[in-house]
Write a structure and sequence with these properties.
Helix content: 25-40%
Structural class: alpha/beta
Shape: globular
Radius of gyration: 18 Å
Largest sheet: 8 strands, mixed
Order of helices and strands: EEEEHHHEHEEEHEEHH
Number of helices: 7
Length: 231
């Protein structure tokens, strides 16, 4: 069964934009950042500083453009056959039947994170959180992002069913990495989220990558004043 969230049934929260940092919202008096930042942080957290604090604008990469188009295509195909439902209806239905949903919005006011999950499989026994990525290598930064989705989902549903984090090759059915979102994973991602909040608050400094290969492929490299030098 395919179900999509009814427009207008997304969680309503009192929010405003952060005055100094782009993409950060202030929700119920707490900073709230996109879960995709956990991927950026793992790649090079200084890129978050350049793009969102200094607000440097650069063109999107080819992978970003292709990814956006692929997301839109899959969502359009999915919506043709999907039955509209509220989030609560999805969770209740999944207690006795299997279903899936795409581009599911999740927001955690408690942890200060939000995002859209590419795909969620809901069964009576477990939830599978899927994030689509180009390629088939499970980078730690990609794992951080999907664990962030798991945490926000868990905080939203308040359900005892197991949660599995999965990475899937974009445009295919190939799930090339998966793991249970256990207590250790939860503790690790909460620690990372707390670091990002400290960065936003100015309590810690953004650290640039020391990997020259990352710098060479970074779309912000022409604007960066802390590029790693080749060894």
């Amino acid at each position: 069964m395919q179900q999509s969230l009814i427009d207008g049934e997304k969680p309503k929260t009192k929010s405003k934009t952060h005055p100094d940092i782009s993409q950060v919202m202030i929700i119920q008096g707490r900073n709230n950042f996109p879960i995709s930042w956990l991927n950026k942080q793992g790649y090079c957290e200084y890129s978050i500083f350049l793009e969102n604090v200094q607000r440097i604008e650069v063109k999107p990469t080819r992978n970003m453009v292709v990814g956006t188009r692929e997301h839109a295509r899959l969502e359009e195909e999915f919506s043709r056959d999907a039955e509209p439902a509220t989030f609560e209806e999805m969770i209740e239905t999944s207690k006795t039947a299997e279903l899936l949903s795409r581009e599911l919005p999740v927001i955690s006011e408690h942890y200060g994170i939000r995002g859209f999950i590419d795909e969620v499989w809901m069964t009576p026994d477990e939830f599978v959180i899927i994030d689509d990525k180009p390629g088939t290598k499970a980078f730690s930064s990609s794992i951080h992002q999907v664990f962030g989705y798991c945490l926000a989902f868990k905080d939203t549903v308040q359900d005892d069913r197991k949660i599995i984090a999965s990475l899937r090759e974009r445009g295919t059915d190939n799930i090339f990495w998966s793991a249970y979102f256990d207590q250790r994973a939860e503790n690790d991602i909460i620690s990372l989220i707390n670091r990002v909040h400290n960065l936003i608050l100015g309590k810690e400094e953004f650290i640039p990558t020391q990997n020259p290969r990352k710098c060479r492929s970074c779309r912000l490299k022409s604007k960066c004043d802390k590029k790693a030098l080749p060894r």
